[in-house]
């Protein structure tokens, strides 16, 4: 019985830590409204238009910290060209804050995501993003 109780406490604590990533201090804000927290800047120069990189992301519910989508589970590592327009403006803006090997948490408000009439209406999107080293 005790191992089960211990495991339950670990799960509760880890869920609290995930949701704290989205509510604690020290977020920076871009002129476009993107909120970001750089966990690791990476090496070399920041990503620029046309750079080809491999990325990984985890999409979270901003309020609960629940994982909604993990790129490694649905498609593996994703090869992306900066500025290709595949992702919403806020996602690309967040990636351009990083260098190869960089990691960050980003909050994308509706105006640079899908707009007020788009996917999930006025919802802010929260992601962990990673640019993999070459």
Characterize the structure shown.
With 134 residues, the protein is of the alpha+beta class. The chain has a single domain, classed as Chitinase A, domain 3 (Roll). 23% of the residues lie in helices and 28% in strands. It has helices at 2-21, 71-74, 89-95, and strands at 28-29, 35-40, 52-60, 67-70, 78-81, 103-108, 125-131. Strands 1, 2, 3, 4, 5, 6 and 7 form a seven-stranded antiparallel beta sheet that branches. The longest helix has 20 residues, at 2-21. The radius of gyration is 16 Å and the shape is globular. The model is unreliable at 3-19 (pLDDT under 50).
Write out key terms for the chains shown:
Chitinase A, domain 3; alpha+beta; disordered N terminus; 7 strands; single chain
- Span from first to last CA? 47 Å
- Average pLDDT, rounded to a whole number, is 81
Which CATH architecture is right?
Answer: Roll
- Topology, number of strands: 7
Helix content: 10-25%
Largest sheet: 7 strands, antiparallel
CATH class: Alpha Beta
Supply the number of helical segments.
3
SSE succession: HEEEEHEHEE
Low-pLDDT sequence parts: 3-19
CA-based shape: globular
Present the secondary structure layout.
Blueprint: H1 2-21, E1 28-29, E2 35-40, E3 52-60, E4 67-70, H2 71-74, E5 78-81, H3 89-95, E6 103-108, E7 125-131
Antiparallel strand pairs: 1-2, 2-6, 3-4, 3-5, 3-7, 6-7
